[in-house]
TrEMBL record:
Entry protein name: Permease
InterPro entries: DUF318, UPF0718_permease
Organism superkingdom: Bacteria
Organism: Shewanella putrefaciens (Pseudomonas putrefaciens)
Coiled coil regions in record: none
Length: 331
């Protein structure tokens, strides 16, 4: 299915650019062209198809649906909605305020927000094509588990007491009004033309937002693939040393990316011998524990809550890395 992209990369790299397949530059260029063309094609075709299916989904309906659920179901649903609703750090404040204003507990809101940057339809489709269904399923399960357990932990410690005052008031007001508020469960009916227009607009909007991250991610992956000395990662980090996982988590924090842009890097690291657990910890840290998102969340959270969420994520990603390094032989 993807042979056409390999042939295209062969033609551009070895015929059009006249690079040698035996050189590091030729190898890195071929990797870059093949992965960029493959990912761009997947983005344009598959985002459109998925957008047709979720054309009627909007944040208001998700918010209203979650508002009436108990905590246990709420964590699962919050994480599930986060996985199918593409948000990045720039959306964190309006989403957070929208959910708290509806009276949704902080833990359920955070289950949504923690899962959303880690998992989206683009990331899942790219992972499936690049790394196979086993790794994709593993990534989805871990991403949702981080959201669910994180939300449960934050509700257990009553994290709402550490919200900024205006956010705490919005939450209290929303919970007080929740009993008197009726929601409309009916799904908005859309014609095929309306769904097509929605899907086309969303495809262009998402592609316009992520294409640069794809190029950056694939470029870094190509550099690692083509210019890193053969066996360097395997020699220094390939044994899955215990300290390599927390170091990978800390290194990933300032290297902000989204799930789409980090996937080619993930692929290249695994191909070059980095253990799957260390790779997973690094990429999850890059996507979900980045400085930009926490700077924005500081507007609605006090330092104590922000530090708690930050520490929770670092510990979670480190444990995930250790766990999957230990059981990597079964993957």
């Amino acid at each position: 299915m993807f042979e056409i992209f390999t042939l295209f990369a062969d033609w551009v790299t070895f015929s059009l650019l006249a690079l040698s397949a035996d050189t590091k530059l030729g190898d890195a260029t071929h990797f870059f062209i093949e992965d960029v063309s493959k990912i761009f094609a997947l983005l344009l075709v598959l985002i459109y198809i998925i957008a047709l299916l979720r054309a009627s989904l909007n944040v208001e309906r998700v918010r209203d649906y979650l508002a009436g659920k108990n905590r246990g179901i709420g964590y699962l649903l919050g994480s599930s909605f986060g996985a199918i609703t593409p948000f990045c750090s720039c959306s964190s404040i309006p989403v957070f305020l929208g959910f708290t204003s509806a009276g949704i507990p902080v833990g359920i809101t955070m289950a949504f927000l923690l899962t959303s940057p880690l998992i989206n339809e683009v990331a899942v489709l790219l992972l499936m094509s690049l790394l196979g269904w086993k790794f994709t399923l593993l990534y989805v399960v871990i991403g949702m588990a981080v959201g669910i357990l994180g939300g449960l932990f934050l509700d257990t410690i009553k994290a709402e007491r550490w919200l900024q005052s205006f956010a705490a008031k919005a939450l209290a007001k929303g919970q007080a009004q929740q009993k008197n508020t009726s929601t409309n469960p009916d799904t908005i009916k859309m014609t095929f033309v309306e769904r097509h227009d929605f899907a086309k607009a969303e495809t262009l909007e998402i592609f316009g937002r992520v294409w640069k991250w794809v190029i950056i991610g694939v470029g870094l992956g190509a550099a690692l693939h083509g210019f890193l000395p053969d066996g360097w990662i395997e020699q220094h980090l390939g044994d899955g040393q215990w300290w390599s996982v927390p170091v990978a988590v800390l290194v990933g924090i300032p290297l902000y990316s989204n799930a789409t842009g980090v996937i080619p890097v993930m692929e290249s690291l695994i191909v070059n011998g980095l253990p799957i657990g260390t790779t997973l910890a690094f990429c999850m840290s890059t996507v979900a524990a980045s400085f930009p998102e926490f700077i924005l969340l500081k507007q609605v959270m006090q330092w104590r809550l922000l530090a708690t969420v930050f520490a929770m994520l670092l510990v979670s990603f480190t444990l995930v890395g250790w766990l999957f390094n230990a059981f990597s032989s079964f993957l």
